[in-house]
Amino acid sequence: MSVNRPFKVLMTADAMGGVWTYALDLIRSLAPFSVEVGLATMGAPLSVQQHAEIRELANVTLFESTYKLEWMENPWEDLEAAGKWLLHLNQIFNPDLIHLNNFAQGNLNWGKPVVMVVHSCVLTWWQAVKGEPAPESWNTYRTVVRAGLQAANIVIAPSKAMLLEAESEYGGFHFSQVIYNGRDPELFNFTPKENFIFSMGRVWDEGKNLAALATVAAQVNWPVYIAGDPVHPVTRQLNVLDNVHYLGTLTPAATREYLSRAAIFVLPAKYEPFGLSPLEAALSGCALVLSKLASLQEIWGDAGVYINPTDEASLTTTLNELTQNEIKRKQIGARALRHGLQYSAKQMAATYLQTYTTLLPILKSNSAGQPVLLSRTI
Fold first, then answer.
1. What is the mean pLDDT of residues 212-226?
2. Sign of CA dihedral 295, 300, 301, 303
3. Which of 20, 196, 314, 327 has its CA 20 to 30 A from that of 143?
């Protein structure tokens, strides 16, 4: 698919975690379709590494800020200021479409079609991790997120499970769609596998449940390596993991190197709307041990081994059985690789572009206040 002139998208992203990786993969994969992206970042300043990643992309204009996100402590003044900033970017960048990877600004007066992606949210996280509804202290968050989602022209989720949870929490949306995340398979490879277990994620995030893996590590036959940020971005609390080889925050290249060598990858999460880390592990030929969550089972089917994330005995037994059975490890790793190839960044970008173009005819008001249908040739 091609367009007559560069198609412009104003996209928001935060500088933390998987949304950053997702945004860069999508931007990079949209370049062959003549799509230019204005990337507005919030939440935290970009690192030197992130600035370097941006410079590698020819089809992106960076607009950087440190405005707080909805889930951060007392963000309401920042959200209002961020809205004014984003509307200014809408004027100067003049995009055809708005792609929001956060919630608070969905109901601004954009005058453009709005795509909103629900990667995760506090309320569905709380229910999954705590086993109960979020407390009343999150009611303002609930109101802000619901308003943003219900104002968007279309809400996209990275799995059917995440979409169902969002609809249950926030009500129905104008339109909705599932677009699975993707990564570039050519970034990943595997050398002869070594006898160690690997995991990664936000160590501070209770939903990732990496502490469970650290707890059982002393009873597991092989050494366990864990990578990820241990410091909570709001409270600054340091989360320490015992009994494992803790690697800290790795560069993308170092992460790929560990994945290429690891025989087993474990994700014991209590909450995971999609999960880029198991996809990266699968594309590296690792045997996948995953939590028995609706989203992960939806995405990986029989390409992984599933465990109850709260059953440490089951996790220990499963890992030890795999360490002792090379044939089974290789079979699971091969299935994961074959299955993972369908979740490519190229396919993700093509699906997003198709969704974008269906939204191009938009209703605006003429001077008499009557709706006028505008469209572009694709």
1. 94
2. negative
3. 20
